[in-house]
Amino acid sequence: MVQTPIMRRSATALIAGSRRVPISRTTVLSRSYASFSRNRADREMSRMMKSGPKEPTMSVGYKEAAKAMFADGNSPLFPATFVAVPLSRYPRSITDFLRYQWFRTLSFVGGKLTVWGNRLDSMPGWTSRPRYNPRTRQLATTAKAMYREVLEAFAAGDVEALRKLCTPSYAQRMIAAVSRRDPREEVHFEVVKYHQPWRFPKLKSHQIRAANELDQDQLTEQAVVAISSTQRLTRRNKATGQIVPGSTKVQDKVEFVVLARNMNKKTWEAEPWKVWGTISDTPLDKYLADKAETEEKQDEHVKWKTPVKR
Known about the structure:
alpha+beta, ribosomal protein, 40% helix, 7 helices, transit peptide
């Protein structure tokens, strides 16, 4: 799993020195987290087959694996998540350019259908208002505000705030990074400025579906928002208050922040949004590789869900 130094040093992955270095994107929790979760399910299924009854059915193993994977309240990134690259990074060939645009359109329409479909499902009757309101226009500003709070809490070492703002696994990783800091130093973080307010923050992906297919009463909603900003991180000596030489780091960043929350499909009551992490954008080769892996895993899981005939 590709991780930036936010997992080990700072949520800002900032460069040494006070000079500003522009970059195109950064990854905190990479898209490979979804692969991590699928691999975790595979390991759990193998473990259940070894430690359980001598001849358990594959459906039992699959259910136990899914239960173990979702036990801590986490959900993997939806495999269909698509974050388009800038036009300057589109494939050069006409064929690949059109293929990429087609995949992007399919992903956009597919996400919209999950939202519209669940709005229809939440209507008590055809003359009633939907009980599920995605509030799509508020997602970008919500992600921007929450992610800033997460970065500030991470810099301050505020463990309780991290647990409140983040999904359990993301909070656990950030808290672990906080615990590894030099106790003689303290970290100061600030967002210097946000860039291109007419363009950012921007909603890049929005889906709601049953992440755990064995629990159809619980839906998971995920949104990906692009945020462009300049961030500064400084370390200070606690005893003297002086800035640690060479610790001031400034960086221009475009980050893709993932928000996630669970929703009860019977009552349509939603839990508060949590910051799931950040991901990278989706170039064509990465999309095709993820698509092939997802299809392979789905084929394997079909076998796991099929009871063994005796």
